[in-house]
Each structure stands twice: as C-alpha cells, then as structure tokens.
Design a protein that fits this description.
This protein is of the alpha/beta class. 54% of the residues lie in helices and 13% in strands.
C-alpha cells in the first residue's frame, strides 16, 4: 500500500454551531448513569458562564483534538466562554498549530501493521494517522519562531502566544485555537510543553545557538497559573 492510500480520509472536526444540542441534554436530565451526569455538568458550566466573577479554565487532552474536537475548543475561545486553557503539548502543537499550518490528521485504523506505517513515515494516534514529514515541518516552524525571539527563559504561555502571533500572518487554516487565543488574549499553558513535537524544534534551536538560545521555564508556568487562581474571585474547570 502506498503512503497516499493511508492518508486519504481527513478527520472532519465537529462544528458545535451546526446543531442545537439543548434537546438531547434536556433528555439526558431524566436518564441514568453518565447521561444524567452530562446534564448536571451542563448546568454547572452554565452557572460558570453566568457568574461574571468566575474564571473558567479549559483543560485538554491531546487525543481529543486529533479525534475531531478541535473546532469545539477554538469556538469556546472565539465566543468568550473560557478564560484560560491548560493543555498537553500535543493538543497545542502536534494538533492545533499543526493543522493551522495547513496539515491534516487522517482517519486510520489501530489494526494496521505499525512497521508498515514506519516504512511510510506515518505516525499513529490509535486510529488516526499523521504524516511524519509534515510533523517535522511543524517542528521546524517552532524552531523558526524560537530563532526570532530574544534569548531568555519563557513560560509556555509566553511562547505559545508567539506561536499565535505567527499564525496571524502565516496561518493556512484560519481561526485555530492558538490563533484565536492570541487575538482574544486568552492564555494557554502547557506544563509539559516540550513533551510534544515542539521539543524537537526547540532542541534544534538550542543546538544551532549553543550560546544564545531561549528555554521553557516550567516554574514560570506554575507561578503564572497560581497568580491567576489567587486573583480570581471564583474559578471553574471545564474538563
């Protein structure tokens, strides 16, 4: 099988503005198990939105972005429904930023022989495929951004903001989470930022500039998040 045969059906991200979910949530209210829990969670989120003093923190796991939820998260920022994002590096770099550069995730299968995928330079997230060569192009874009910044320690929030600034001028896919967060001044934190494709780009940046390079300061992340929590009248998590 050729590489093109593996990468032919792109993941289609759900558009939460294309349908009204209220009737199904209301129906779940009278059901049992996780259905009733989902309705209760919707009520809690509505309480957060109606409270002007509530700082809402969206937390993300990487696989959900690749799996088709990318627009859901971007729209939460676009429509001012969250104030802070805390995510894995994969969510932000390998998935959202990656697609903003014009690349895609593809529908695949967990049953494929990984050795064959390796021969074609294809990465797999369970049943989702990524072109490794495109991912390396994403890595080098991270390096390009790092090369253009003043050499010093940056929190992940500071560096991701620069990624958003880059997308305002260079995005192929408009209104990604990273770009919208920059435009709406919503901070994004990745406590394990280098545990993603970005790590390779930053390693190359430091290797090419051994005496003058930037670094990611995880303690600065902790400090900034702590200040946000302390300054909030109340806070809520959307997980």
């Amino acid at each position: 099988m050729t590489k093109k045969r593996f990468l032919k059906e792109a993941v289609r991200h759900a558009d939460p503005t294309a349908f009204n979910a209220t009737p199904i949530i209301e129906a779940m209210r009278g059901m049992s198990f996780s259905a009733r829990d989902t309705a209760a969670a919707a009520d809690i989120f509505m309480r957060m939105l109606k409270d002007p003093g509530c700082t809402i923190v969206l937390t993300l796991a990487g696989s959900t972005s690749a799996g088709g939820c990318m627009q859901v998260y971007a729209d939460l920022v676009k429509y001012n429904m969250v104030d802070v994002v805390v995510a894995t590096g994969a969510s932000i770099v390998d998935m959202d930023f990656f697609e903003a550069l014009g690349f895609r995730h593809y529908q695949g299968s967990p049953a494929v022989d990984d050795r064959e995928l390796r021969r074609h330079y294809i990465d797999r997230i369970y049943d989702t495929f990524i072109d490794e060569e495109e991912l390396q192009a994403c890595d080098m874009t991270v390096k390009k951004i790092a090369d253009g910044l003043t050499p010093r320690p940056y929190s992940s929030r500071e560096f991701i903001r620069e990624m958003g600034r880059y997308l305002t001028a260079h995005a192929v896919k408009q209104e990604s989470l990273v770009e919208l967060a920059f435009r709406h001044e919503v901070p994004i934190f990745c406590p394990a930022f280098t545990d993603s494709s970005a790590g390779f780009g930053l390693v190359k940046h430091q290797a090419d500039h051994p005496d003058r390079h930037l670094s990611i300061d995880a303690v600065a992340d902790f400090h900034e998040l702590t200040r946000i929590k302390m300054e909030a009248k109340t806070s809520g998590l959307f997980m």
